[in-house]
Amino acid sequence: METEAASAAVQTAGFIHPVMADVMTILSFVLVIASVGIASVAAYYAWRQTGGTVDALEGSVAWLRKEAERLSNEIKSAAAKDSMTASEITQLKEKIAQLETALAEGGGRPAAPSLAKESVPEETQVPEPELSAPEPEQELPAPEPEPELPAPEPEPELPAPEPEPEPEPASESEKHEEEDEDEDLDLDALLESKPIWQDLLDDYHALCENFDRTKGAELCVPLITKYGLHLLVCSDHAAVENGKTMPKFETVEDLNEATFWAYDIPGQPGDFAVIPSPMFPYDQKMHDDGGMKETFATRYEAGKTYHHITVDMPALFTQRNEKWHIEQPGLLRLAE
To answer: Distance (Å, rounded) from C-alpha 325 to C-alpha 271?
Structure first.
């Protein structure tokens, strides 16, 4: 019985050791995978800390290679120990078989040896392989703290602008005064600048040099059409407005009736340069009743008739609400 118990113990021990060998092999592989994972993580953080430089990557790869070689050597040594354990168990089985044969021949059964002490000789006891402690992870340098930027200074609050006082509505008289001032400024600017009507005056004087009044309408139409002239006549030279003598002018369609031609000043809507029509000689009736003395300054001698007229300066008219007003009298030179 003791021999059978010993044999059973040895067989049981023989089955345990191969299982332990498989466990050790699996643990070794697990350690390899864990080490590779740790090394990969360490390489990744090293790559991040170093900015991904080539030197840092080469150092991490070299460390991984060394770690893989070390783990491979440990696996080989563990496999060699497993093979030694299997051979020792086989030898024990052979010794047990020899003991059983000797007992059968002698007819006696020796006392069963203590299984606790002699089931496996001390020489054959295989010490469990010591697992190498994993190397401590390389301490990665702590990332340098980012410099704290100074907080932006708050912008100084600007005082709210004081609301401008609303201007008081101008009275009717002030409005008329402002309009008169604007008109005076426009007229002054026209007088100081190069005459806009100079081309009209040049063509007008060329027409008057050899003017034949028997063909007056035929000669005047091209000039009137070219400059878009308005035909005017003084309907009342003695009209009074606001206590002032203000001759009245009206627009007509008949060229033989119009004594004045009005030219639209470019860029000045409602402003006109006015010249006398060459179809009428300058005589006493035109001077007194035709509105000429109110419209132009001349050196007219009473009773004379002048057939040649030179316009040194056209009269400046305005038209507001279909009413014509003399703003600036013109200047004529008369010749018989």
So the answer is: 10
Full 3-state SS string of the chain: CHHHHHHHHHHHHHHHHHHHHHHHHHHHHHHHHHHHHHHHHHHHHHHHHCCCCHHHHHHHHHHHHHHHHHHHHHHHHHHHHHHHHHHHHHHHHHHHHHHHHHHHHHCCCCCCCCHHHHCCCCCCCCCCCCCCCCCCCCCCCCCCCCCCCCCCCCCCCCCCCCCCCCCCCCCHHHHHHHHHHHHHHHHHHHHHCCCCCHHHHHHHHHHHHCCCHHHHHHHHHHHHHHHCCEEEEEEECCCEECCEECCEEEECCCCCCCCEEEEECCCCCCEEEEEECCCCCECHHHHHCCCHHHHEECCCCCCCCECEEEEEECEEEEEECCEEEEEECEEEEEEC
Which residues, 6+ apart, have CB-to-CB distance to 335 below 8 Å?
306, 307, 308, 309, 310
AA identity, residue 315: A
* Phi, psi (rounded to 5 degrees) for 318: -130, 150
Distance, CA of 104 to CA of 80 (rounded, Å): 37
pTM over 0.70, yes/no = no
CA separation for the pair 63, 57 (Å, rounded):
10
**Of the spans 107-121, 134-148, 183-197, 295-309, which averages the highest pLDDT?**
295-309
Q: Six-digit token pair at 163?
A: 């609301």
Give the pLDDT band of residue 86 (cuts 50, 70, 90).
low
307-321, pLDDT tens digit by residue? 999 999 999 999 988
Q: Do the beta carbons of residue 231 and residue 261 sit within 8 Å?
A: yes
For residue 119, give the nearest of 14, 15, 10 by alpha carbon: 10
Largest CA distance in the chain: 191
